[in-house]
């Protein structure tokens, strides 16, 4: 077996010239292949073919004489052949490995000599630069010796607890990630800090097996070239912590306005949790609660690893974090943060931060500025009424493009949780949800716009629940009113009676079809759902109201028009050639709802003829909503061209002192934004009357075709075939009708509301 030892010694000397990591890798591979060859060779030698049957068949088939047995190869020659085969296999594997893995592999020294990465830029639709994301800038190098021990320990605990024990890769980490991936829809990695450093600095962001092998080999090389402390120092100075903060020193300044050396344990734990997904876990993002969740996870890992005591752990949990004001040069921050999340989801954090992407969004920054200014002006006038915050959303219903998104009064005001994007947070919609209830009734042909509903006291008894007696906002009951009057004036009792007729579960299903994504537990809803008892997102409400604006078609919202890499290659383009393809309600239903919401005369009983819901010269559908506890005040209004949603309230969910829908709060903001949009538009599109709908003059009290004796005649919309066929007569009106009394009340209320509005304008 002397040649075995000679071959292995030769192989050892050869691989030692390539470096320790490659030596162990190739040595192990060669030894396994050689042992495999010996096993196969021994099995082959044990096979004997000189059986009588074989020889008899051979003689019979080929009719030949028995030949002399071939001379057997010598043991030495057989071993030479085996050596040649093993050498060929090793040469093939080695060549393949060199070609695909080693040929273009960066040198570890490039960790300190590599070139600067590229900047990603986010623009509005007209080329206004909203935000820049870049790497290898805004970085200050700091030594590991200058940091408190728990700063590095926090990173090790959450990212790589075995850092000082493994050779560059962790078997336990890989196994843990594999088990987690088997039981989760999301994909987790088992990369060590060394592998992460290599991946983020020396390799591309592609997710391939070849790239993973390169990462593995480079990690071994980096561990051979640098010490553990040097690797950890490079990681802490290199990793991105969100925004333009790269490296632990800039992260400490960005989030807490202090040097990294002065970080507390609680602050260090929060920062250590960010690199996994800076956009998701940022305390300045739309989900600041996830930052706290991640911080607690880091502290728990540190306690489990014995890096901190139980007392230190509890003290860090109890510490109240005080964040610095973000110092980003950023326009439309709530919208930009939402776009960032979309980009991370589609292209990954690394490519977003270093790939030099050119992102064109749907935002119109000029419209955004107008919306922001209108909201600030109204909120300043409401400050004495304990109204601290607001939000505005502007979209194009036909394409779903977001033209403006103002998520709070001031993104940088931590006293009102300004980083929270209210347009993406669940809030109760109040009466703004009522159009969905009536649309469902119209769809099921349970009602028409002229159907009468008795606005009178009623109590609902549900087993296991207290009695429910809906009340109108004005504390009065209005007798028999039409669907048009009930919806336009936002009467509560008729809406509840309508929901009781169509069914709560039907409305939940219908709301989902219309775009509501938060109604996932229908069992918790009751008849108050039509009055705003189920929380919604403003973005979802924009989709639902967009269905009415689009004549029955649902179009999801979008925020990005195109994404291009630094070479000019288009990675994404928003295509909307056929946006209007998902019909969820009939065109006649959509038009009827829009016509009611745009009927200034019909809503005059509640809002007067000259409220801010009316924009002279334009037909605009609009609906308000205020929760009974005055925690949320909404207005949604639209034309076929624009949809504007507004909200005022408080992020801490505390009630406002006083808000009157249609006079103060969300409605004036809505009026200012919508008026500006309509007056600056080059063209204005009215609601298109669909086929199959007709306008008929009816007698309101009798719900019949009008006659000369009828005291209240109105033109009303009907789906063709559902209009009345009977005509009223004089004998139907021997007594004064309830409707006449209603008309008198309308005129009296107009005078009162006009006085309030005039007084407010003077002030």
Protein described:
The chain has 763 residues and is an alpha+beta fold. Helix content is 43%, strand content 10%. The chain has 26 helices and 15 strands. It has a five-stranded mixed sheet with strand order 2-1-3-8-9. The protein has a five-stranded antiparallel sheet with strand order 5-4-12-11-10, sandwiched between helices. A three-stranded antiparallel sheet has the order 14-13-15, with no helix packed on it. The longest helix is centred in the first third of the chain and has 28 residues, at 75-102. It is elongated.
Structural class: alpha+beta
Averaged pLDDT:
81
**Outline, from the CA principal axes?**
elongated
Radius of gyration: 37 Å
Distance between the termini: 106 Å
For the biggest β-sheet, the strand order reads 2-1-3-8-9
Number of helices: 26
Instruction: Note poorly predicted spans.
Output: 13-23, 43-58, 112-116, 736-763
Strand content: 5-15%
Largest sheet: 5 strands, mixed
Helix content: 40-55%
* Number of β-strand runs: 15
């Amino acid at each position: 077996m002397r040649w075995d030892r000679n071959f292995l010694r030769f192989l050892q000397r050869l691989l030692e010239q390539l470096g320790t990591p490659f030596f162990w890798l190739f040595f192990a591979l060669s030894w396994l292949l050689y042992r495999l060859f010996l096993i196969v060779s021994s099995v082959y030698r044990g096979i004997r073919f000189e059986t009588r049957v074989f020889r008899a068949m051979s003689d019979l088939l080929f009719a030949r004489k028995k030949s002399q047995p071939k001379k057997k190869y010598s043991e030495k020659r057989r071993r030479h052949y085996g050596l040649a085969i093993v050498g060929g296999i090793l040469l093939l594997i080695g060549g393949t490995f060199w070609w695909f893995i080693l040929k273009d592999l960066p040198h570890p020294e490039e960790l300190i000599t590599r070139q600067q990465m590229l900047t990603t830029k986010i623009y509005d639709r007209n080329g206004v630069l909203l935000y820049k994301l870049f790497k290898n800038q805004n970085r200050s190098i700091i030594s590991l010796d200058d940091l408190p021990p728990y700063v590095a320990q926090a990173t090790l605990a959450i990212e790589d607890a075995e850092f000082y024990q493994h050779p560059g890769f962790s078997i336990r980490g890989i196994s843990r990630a594999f088990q987690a991936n088997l039981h989760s829809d999301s994909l987790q990695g088992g990369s060590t800090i060394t592998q992460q450093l290599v991946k983020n600095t020396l390799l591309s962001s592609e997710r391939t097996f070849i790239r993973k092998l390169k990462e593995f080999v480079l990690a071994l090389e980096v561990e051979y070239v640098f010490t553990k402390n040097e690797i950890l120092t490079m990681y802490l100075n290199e990793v991105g912590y969100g925004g333009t903060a790269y490296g632990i020193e800039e992260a400490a300044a960005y989030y807490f306005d202090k040097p990294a050396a002065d970080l507390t344990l609680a602050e260090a734990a929060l920062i250590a949790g960010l690199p996994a997904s800076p956009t998701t876990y940022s305390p300045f993002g739309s989900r600041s609660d996830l930052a706290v969740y991640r911080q607690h996870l880091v502290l728990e890992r540190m306690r489990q690893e014995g890096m901190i005591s139980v007392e230190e752990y509890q003290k860090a949990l109890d510490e109240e974090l005080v964040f610095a004001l973000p110092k980003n040069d950023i326009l439309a921050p709530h919208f930009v943060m939402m776009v960032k999340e979309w980009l991370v989801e589609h292209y990954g954090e690394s490519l977003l931060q270093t790939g030099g992407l050119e992102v064109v969004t749907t935002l119109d920054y000029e419209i955004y500025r107008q919306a922001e200014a209108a909201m600030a002006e109204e909120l300043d006038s409401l400050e004495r009424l304990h109204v601290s915050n607001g939000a505005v959303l502007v979209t194009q219903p036909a394409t779903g493009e977001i033209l403006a998104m103002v998520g709070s009064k001031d993104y940088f005001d931590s006293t009102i949780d300004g980083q929270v994007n209210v347009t993406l947070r669940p809030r109760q919609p109040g009466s703004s949800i009522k159009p969905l209830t009536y649309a469902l009734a119209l769809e099921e042909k349970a009602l028409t716009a002229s159907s009468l509903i008795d606005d009178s006291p009623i109590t609902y008894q549900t087993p296991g629940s207290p009695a429910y007696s809906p009340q109108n906002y004005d504390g009065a009951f209005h007798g028999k009113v039409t669907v048009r009057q009930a919806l336009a004036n936002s009467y509560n009792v008729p809406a509840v009676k309508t929901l009781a007729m169509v069914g709560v579960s039907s409305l939940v299903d219908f709301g989902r079809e219309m775009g509501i994504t938060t109604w996932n537990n229908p069992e918790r809803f009751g008849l108050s759902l039509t009055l705003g008892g189920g929380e919604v997102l403003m973005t979802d409400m924009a989709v639902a109201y967009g269905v009415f604006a689009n004549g029955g078609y649902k179009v999801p919202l979008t925020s990005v028009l195109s994404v291009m890499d630094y070479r000019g290659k288009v990675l994404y383009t928003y295509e909307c050639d056929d946006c209007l393809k998902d019909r969820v309600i009939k065109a006649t239903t959509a038009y009827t709802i829009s016509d009611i919401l745009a009927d200034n005369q019909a809503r005059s009983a509640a809002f007067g003829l000259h409220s801010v819901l009316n924009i002279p010269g334009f037909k605009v559908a609009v609906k308000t909503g205020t929760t009974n506890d005055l925690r949320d005040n909404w207005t949604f209004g639209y034309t076929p061209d624009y949809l504007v949603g507004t909200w005022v309230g408080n992020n801490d969910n505390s009630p406002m002192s006083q808000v009157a829908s249609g006079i103060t709060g969300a409605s004036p903001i809505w009026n200012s934004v919508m008026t500006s949009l309509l007056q600056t538009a080059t063209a204005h599109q009215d609601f298109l009357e669909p086929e199959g709908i007709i306008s008929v003059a009816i007698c309101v009290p009798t719900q019949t075709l009008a006659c000369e004796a009828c005291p209240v005649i109105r033109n009303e919309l009907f789906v063709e075939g559902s209009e009345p066929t009977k005509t009223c007569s004089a004998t139907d009106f021997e007594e004064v009708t309830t409707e006449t009394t209603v008309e008198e009340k309308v005129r009296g209320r107009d005078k009162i509301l006009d006085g309030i509005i005039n007084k407010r304008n003077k002030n």
